[in-house]
Design a protein that fits this description.
By secondary structure, the protein is of the alpha/beta class. The protein folds into 2 domains: 11-179, Rossmann fold (3-Layer(aba) Sandwich), CATH 3.40.50; 184-385, Dehydroquinate synthase-like - alpha domain (Dehydroquinate synthase-like, alpha domain), CATH 1.20.1090. It has helices at 22-26, 41-44, 47-57, 74-87, 98-110, 118-121, 185-203, 211-233, 238-252, 265-277, 281-296, 301-312, 321-338, 355-362, 376-385; strands at residues 11-14, 32-37, 61-65, 91-96, 133-137, 149-154, 159-164, 172-175. The strands form 2 sheets. A 6-stranded parallel β-sheet has the order 1-8-5-4-2-3. Strands 6-7 form a two-stranded antiparallel sheet. α11 (281-296) runs antiparallel to α13 (321-338) and α11 (281-296) crosses α15 (376-385).
Length: 387
């Protein structure tokens, strides 16, 4: 087990009607806010009016910026920064899923920075301070509501990059599973793939003697797998969506990675599908993770065999350890198919003659991952396995 420091200050407010407390929570930080959201879905569901009511009851001055799209873009972030500077915004409230939250975090980074916000994503600037953010979560998936990460796409070059800092942790996150009831089934499935992928990035490690966090990861994976099957059949099942929503937060709030070296190669490979072709993040991961697993499993067969036995309940006497590891990967692919997700690039209509370009972009800053180091040639082979 590795040395670690764990800190997560995000206040979680969970349950039915919890969005009604948003004004009360924001008032602790200021009275002038930027309300940041995506399209018209929060207005159609009535959530927008509930949020406004809570804010107005506390005499909070509201400026709005809508238009966040899946795979949020830096041009909208720059627009948000301009609004915040001109109006001396004190707090940013993100209402939506991971894309909206990531966009809000990026805005908070740039308000007090003299240069361009993309400098942070290029490693050209150090984050000194942010303005505080809060979240009303509507899509359980990215875990951004309680993570130190933001991921943004630069339309100039179609480059998707992440940035990490404890300063990005939202002050609070409101989680009401009822707010997920209008989500399309495909979006729920993609969210579940994202949650599993965040757990995989931590679970598949070469760090020995991490059984406690192994068991935490395995419990979360089993819970998401079981409840995703329920949720795609009945999206208004409160109990299933409660499990999924809380799992989304836990999978990416840092606790599962304590004491172990994380990987993150599959995410970076998947980012290229989103940046270049607009693939939904969860769908990119349901394709890339099984392919990555097939490429690397021999570098720690015991861990993949453990995954098969503990997560998918495959009999540990199953012929031999390599077949056991392979069977676990097959079970994962079958699960993704069962909940309606793609597992091949061909299903996403990704042009196969662009594999080399995607591989080149994925490793543009050098080899990726820690389970094994993935260079351009490795990335090409992984994309080939995903065809």
């Amino acid at each position: 087990m590795e040395n670690f420091v764990f800190k997560n200050d995000t206040k979680i407010i969970f349950g039915k009607g919890s969005e009604e407390k948003v004004g009360e929570e924001i008032l602790k930080y200021g009275t002038k806010i930027l309300l940041h959201y995506g399209g018209g879905s929060i207005k159609k569901t009535g959530l927008y009016e509930k949020i406004l009511k809570s804010l107005k009851e506390k005499n909070i001055e509201i400026y709005e910026l809508s238009g966040v799209q899946p795979n949020p873009v830096v041009s909208l972030v720059r627009k948000g920064i301009k609004i915040c500077r001109e109006n001396k915004i004190e707090f940013i409230l993100a209402v939506g899923g991971g894309s909206v939250i990531d966009s809000a975090k990026a805005i908070s980074m740039g308000v007090n920075y003299d240069g361009d916000v993309w400098d942070f994503f290029e490693g050209k600037a150090k984050l000194e301070n942010t303005i505080p953010t809060g979240v009303v979560l509507t899509i359980p998936a990215a875990g951004s509501e309680s993570s130190v990460v933001t991921v943004i796409t630069n339309e100039d070059g179609l480059i998707k990059r992440g940035f990490h800092s404890e300063k990005l942790l939202p002050r609070f996150a409101i989680l009401n599973p009822e707010l997920t009831f209008t989500l399309p089934v495909f979006q729920i499935a993609c969210g579940c793939a994202d949650i599993l992928a965040h757990t995989f990035e931590r679970y598949f490690t070469q760090t020995p003697n991490v059984d406690l966090t192994d068991r935490l990861c395995e419990g979360l994976m089993k819970t998401v797998i079981e409840n995703s099957k329920i949720a795609v059949k009945n999206p208004k099942n409160y109990d299933a969506m409660s499990q999924i929503m809380w799992a989304s937060t836990i999978a990416h709030n840092g606790i599962l990675g304590t004491g172990r070296v994380e990987d993150w190669a599959s995410h970076k490979l998947g980012h290229e599908l989103s940046a270049l072709y607009g693939v939904t993040h969860g769908a990119s991961l349901s394709v890339m993770f099984p392919a990555w697993m097939k490429y690397v499993y021999k570098y720690n067969i015991n861990r993949f065999a453990q995954f098969a036995v503990r997560v998918f309940n495959i009999d540990s006497d199953f012929n031999n350890i390599e077949k056991l590891a392979i069977e676990g990967i097959k079970k994962l692919e079958n699960h993704f198919k069962e909940i309606g997700l793609p597992t091949r690039l061909s299903e996403l209509k990704i042009p196969l003659d662009k594999i080399e370009l995607m591989a080149e972009k994925a490793v543009i800053k050098g080899p990726i991952g820690n389970f094994i180091k993935i260079n351009k040639e490795d990335a090409i082979k992984i994309y080939e396995l995903a065809k």
